[in-house]
Specification:
Layout lengths: L12 H10 L16 H10 L10 H11 L2
Helix pairs in contact: 2-3
Bound molecules: zinc ion.
Amino acid sequence: MKCPYCKIEYNSLLTLNVHKENCFYKDNPIQVDYDAIPYYDLKSMAMTKGIKGATNMKKTELIDALKEMED
Ligand SMILES: [Zn+2]
């Protein structure tokens, strides 16, 4: 489960709820600027999220795949 504001992953509902109360992005949800993230970081993010074929993707393909994962 993750914070709806900042998209940080939490593995317990209790810590998530405590975090949400004080989330820095509560009133201003974060918009991830994937274009600003280096290619190799995008690739490791994609692999962490289990996106298939991430190792062979171009930057634009990684960005599309990561955006799809957000919902
Ligand atoms: Zn948060």
